[in-house]
Design goal:
The complex is a heterodimer of chains A (405) and B (276). Chain A has 18 helices and eleven strands. Chain A is α/β, with parallel strands linked by helices and 405 residues long. Chain A folds into two domains: 173 residues, 3-Layer(aba) Sandwich (D-Maltodextrin-Binding Protein, domain 2), CATH 3.40.190; 193 residues, 3-Layer(aba) Sandwich (D-Maltodextrin-Binding Protein, domain 2). In chain A, the strands form three sheets. In chain A, strands 2-1-3-10-4 form a five-stranded mixed sheet, with helices on both faces. Chain A has a four-stranded mixed sheet with strand order 6-7-5-8. With 276 residues, chain B is mainly α. Chain B folds into two domains: 43 residues; 209 residues, Orthogonal Bundle (MetI-like fold). Chain B starts with 9 loop residues before the first helix and ends with a helix. The chains are: A alpha/beta (405), B mainly alpha (276).
């Protein structure tokens, strides 16, 4: 019998030692796993440090996974869902919630401080009475403008569609680029489309479409027309401009207007801290306009977590008024709490719709996951083929719904 | 050494220059961006920074927890390369020298056929199985790399072993060597050109791979370097200055490996090309 080569023996010895080392890390403290996308990380850390100080027997492990959704899916496959997941109230959430992995908070007192409109959004995403996550922050879509440029042109922020088109025309006549549009990223067409559709398409569209009583052809024709008209005022080569490039270009004073949500503001200010910005409700119609405000972040917990009491404790802590305020101030996002309006001075024109309740969730969040409406709109703004856009959406919707049933 | 009458062709020089440029230019962008402030990146991608911002590197180290990830990546890569060289060559040797037996011929085609199966198809079952067996950690990752490398490595090893004359082994057998000794003392050293090829490819693959660690590793403490790079990408935007600083630190070890192993790699390759 010959002996194995010494190198092999050494390698295996090393491996087994490592295995032993990895196995011996148990402790008496309850550890909670908290999954979050890459936003406001330092604030989460500070909040958890405060929580751990109050509850020395609980440790919160903050995990910022690369490729959030993919990792979450693998965790479901592994049957090891994190205790708490902080994610957007979007189509990805719809998929997970419908899969029945999250706890229902419909009867939970934690929801009392949340504006009903956001609770309804979470319900309508899944289409039932259940609330599979506690809304934590909201986002808001509007028309961002360069205040200095607007002043130079002798204009005030547009309130109606007619004023908006007139302002775009005036900017072009003055030799300015009226609008930055970043069509290289398909998702950019969604806030654009949502801002118009929320004002011109009935809120019941998705439900009616599923019942076979509505079509994109009939309902979205006006939305498509307006998008195309506005897009006509964009910079050269919008299809070759990504969100990052466009945001940087707008920050450098590249254009007067930018159609985006509040999430673009930190990026604009990072690229040019001196720029004077404003945001107004998107002037989609000539009447009073409704603002799109969706749940940007919600806290969902795994239905079969091993530490339900600790999870409740942490959620209670995070949703307390003081801690919500701390988080919102850090990420500069609008609140979902009852009786609040956006406090950022840039968003001062957005206060009125929030206090009067003229806000609504993004129509897109009710579309079936897998429809990929953004790619249809992206193609449409380039080939300008409205029939192809609306027929394509109608057909794909039916296909996607049939596939998932 | 100059060959009379042969001057370097202008066309080839121009092509080489353009080829070099296509590598140097992105490298220039990476280095320059890594030393800028976010404002400078937004102002112009190509311009030189006004002052060198070395803090980008320390900030990137802090954000990615660089040294922990580096340790994991190094542990995984070194183990994978060693185990792959030692085990895959053994398997290939067994197959190459027994191809007259149906079982070994079948095994050869069985392993090769794995080359044609795309990873996403087996991804979810692998995730489920590794998790059930408690292998969702670096050790499980090493095991998977060694096994997944088999199909390609056997393909190259077997082809090469067939070209080694059997007479050498017969001579060893007459001198009283066991099969085990024949392999380690005679065949394995003769395989060095192939070992170099397999070693380099495996090293790059294990160091750079993103998807497998993403789905296998559960504990963020065990994240490898490619995984931690994601921290610079927000939902909609990327902090390019920090990201590039981090990318440079991540690719540096591979460059150093190449510089150190360069002589050995090239001599290994040329050794294989000259028969004698």
């Amino acid at each position: 019998m010959s002996k194995p080569h010494p190198t092999i023996r050494r390698t295996f010895l090393g491996l087994s030692l490592l295995l032993l080392g990895a196995a011996s890390s148990a402790s008496a403290v309850t550890e909670l796993e908290f999954y979050v996308g890459n936003k406001g990380i330092d604030t989460w850390k500070a909040l958890f440090a405060a929580f751990e100080k109050q509850n020395p027997d609980i440790k919160v492990n903050l995990v910022v996974p690369p490729d959030f959704v993919a990792v979450l899916k693998t965790r479901i496959v592994k049957n090891k869902l994190p205790d708490i997941v902080a994610m957007g109230g979007d189509t990805n959430f719809k998929g997970f919630a419908e899969g029945g992995v999250f706890k229902d908070y419909a009867a939970d007192p934690l929801l009392k401080s949340v504006k009903p409109i956001y609770i309804q959004q979470i319900q309508s995403i899944v289409g039932g009475k259940q609330v599979y996550g506690i809304p934590y922050t909201a986002n808001t879509i509007g028309l961002i403008y360069n205040a200095d440029k607007l002043k130079q042109l002798g204009l005030t922020p547009p309130k109606t569609y007619a004023q908006f088109i007139a302002a775009l025309k005036k900017a072009r006549a003055a030799g300015q680029t009226p609008l930055t549009l970043t069509l290289k990223d398909a998702w950019v067409t969604l806030p654009f489309m949502n801002a118009i559709a929320v004002n011109t398409v009935p809120a019941t569209f998705a439900a009616q479409k599923n019942a076979g009583k509505a079509t994109f052809k009939a309902a979205y024709s006006g939305v498509a027309d307006k998008m195309l008209e506005i897009a006509g005022y964009a910079q050269n080569d919008p299809a070759g401009t990504s969100f990052a490039d466009g945001t940087a270009a707008f920050a450098r004073g590249g254009s007067v207007f930018y159609i985006q949500g509040d999430w673009a503001l930190p990026d604009i200010l990072a690229a040019n801290p001196k720029i004077k910005l404003g945001m107004v409700p998107f002037p989609a119609t000539n009447g009073a306009n409704t603002v799109v405000s969706s749940v940007d972040l919600l806290l969902a917990s795994a239905k079969d977590t091993r530490h339900p009491a600790e999870v409740d404790k942490l959620l209670k802590f995070l949703t307390s008024k003081a801690n919500v305020t701390t988080y919102l101030r850090a990420v500069n996002a609008p609140s979902v709490q009852v009786g609040t309006v956006p406090t950022d001075p840039i968003l001062s024109a957005m206060k009125a719709p929030y206090s009067s309740g003229k806000i609504a969730g993004a129509p897109f969040n009710l579309f079936p996951p897998g429809l990929n409406a953004e790619t249809f709109f992206q193609a449409y703004l380039q080939d300008k083929n409205k029939a192809k856009l609306l027929d394509g959406l109608d057909k794909t919707w039916t296909d996607v719904v049939r596939r998932s049933n | 050494m100059n060959e009379a009458g042969k001057r370097p062709s202008t066309l080839i020089t121009v092509l080489l220059f353009l080829g070099a440029l296509s590598i140097l230019f992105p490298l220039y962008l990476a280095v320059v961006t890594a030393l800028k402030t976010p404002q400078e990146v937004a102002a112009s991608v190509f311009a030189l920074p006004t002052s060198l911002r070395w803090e980008n590197f320390s900030e990137a180290i802090r954000l990615t927890n660089f040294f922990t990830a580096f340790r994991t990546s190094a542990f995984v890569t070194v183990s994978v390369v060693l185990l792959t060289l030692l085990t895959n060559s053994l398997v290939a040797y067994a197959i190459a020298r027994n191809q007259d037996k149906p079982l070994f011929r079948y095994l050869y085609y069985y392993f090769i056929s794995a080359l044609f199966i795309p990873f996403p198809i087996i991804m979810l079952p692998v995730v489920k199985q590794t998790s059930a067996w408690g292998m969702d950690n670096p050790v499980g990752l090493i095991f998977l790399y060694v096994v997944y490398g088999l199909s390609f490595n056997i393909f190259v090893y077997v082809g090469y072993i067939k070209s080694i004359p059997r007479e050498i082994e017969e001579a060893a057998l007459i001198d009283g060597a066991t099969t085990w000794q024949t392999f380690w003392k005679i065949i394995f050293p003769l395989l060095s050109p192939m070992n170099a090829t397999v070693g380099i490819l495996t090293c790059l693959w294990a160091w750079n791979d993103f998807l497998l660690p993403l789905v296998i590793i559960s504990d963020p403490e065990f994240a490898t370097l490619p995984l931690v790079q994601y921290i610079f990408q927000g939902q909609f935007s990327t902090q390019y200055n920090l990201a590039f600083a981090s990318y440079l630190m991540t690719l540096a070890p591979m460059v150093i490996v190449y510089l150190l192993a360069q002589r050995w790699i090239i001599s290994g390759v040329t050794q294989g090309s000259v028969k004698g």
